[in-house]
Amino acid sequence: MARRRCGAHRAPGAAAAGGRDAAEAERAKQLSLLAAAAGPQAALVPLIESAAGLAALDELAAAPQVLRLAFGHLDFQSDLGLACEADEPELIPVRLSLVLASRRASIAAPVDGVTPDWRDLDRLAADAARARRGGFGAKLCIHPDQVSPVQAAFAPSAEQLAWARRVDAAMRAAGGGAINMDGRMVDAPVLRLAQRLLAHDGQGRG
């Protein structure tokens, strides 16, 4: 049986203790048992904290009631005997694997692990920026003081939102296809990126 861990989302970009279920997971059957115990209203966030969990990423991401994956990077290092420095280059392929599995399963972008020293805001900012660059959509927090900086790190900038609105308006006016905007081609993948930015902004305001 999977052990339950805190990890509920309180706001876009940040995750903290609360009302959704997160569990260390290595097999989809564990999640099925947890979902049955928690009820159909529960949103599960499997924590990937071991080599076994990494090997089962696609199975876990596709399990019923899974909202998104989360990376328990500290326990993962312990499981594999890694001794990463703060920038954790050894974990780049692991983080990318979570992002790819999430995309294949059409679930929300994964949640990155905690920054253990809640007093080190510079480290928190660097960790959150790395997570966002790497395709993560949120970050676990262990202290209330971490929530606002993490939200800010994952929120689209004013410049990004202005660009996204221009792209969306231009594509609507053109009726689809590909257009030229500021000397660059804008097509369906670019429009999807713009719409994701606008949707993220809408969640933050909701």
Characterise the protein shown here.
By secondary structure, the chain is an alpha/beta fold. The chain has two domains: 4-154, Phosphoenolpyruvate-binding domains (TIM Barrel); 158-205, no CATH class. 49% of the residues lie in helices and 15% in strands. It contains nine helices and ten strands. The chain has a four-stranded mixed β-sheet with strand order 1-4-5-6. The protein has a four-stranded mixed β-sheet with strand order 2-3-8-7. Strands 9-10 form a two-stranded antiparallel sheet. Strand 7 (111-112), helix 6 (121-133) and strand 8 form a beta-alpha-beta unit. Helix 8 (158-174) crosses helix 9. It is globular and about 50 Å long. The two termini are 36 Å apart. Mean pLDDT is 85; it is low at 1-21.
What's the arrangement of secondary structure elements?
Elements: E1 4-5, E2 8-11, E3 14-16, E4 21-24, H1 28-38, E5 44-48, H2 51-55, H3 57-61, E6 70-71, H4 73-80, H5 92-104, E7 111-112, H6 121-133, E8 138-140, H7 144-154, H8 158-174, E9 179-181, E10 184-186, H9 188-205
Parallel strand pairs: 3-8, 4-5, 5-6, 7-8
Antiparallel strand pairs: 1-4, 2-3, 9-10
Helix pairs in contact: 6-7, 8-9
Q: What general outline do the C-alpha atoms trace?
A: globular
Low-confidence stretches: 1-21
Contiguous helical run count:
9
Number of structural domains: 2
**At the first level of CATH, what is the class of the largest domain?**
Alpha Beta
Organism: Variovorax soli
Protein name: Citrate lyase subunit beta/citryl-CoA lyase
Domain HpcH/HpaI aldolase/citrate lyase: 42-144
GO molecular function: citryl-CoA lyase activity
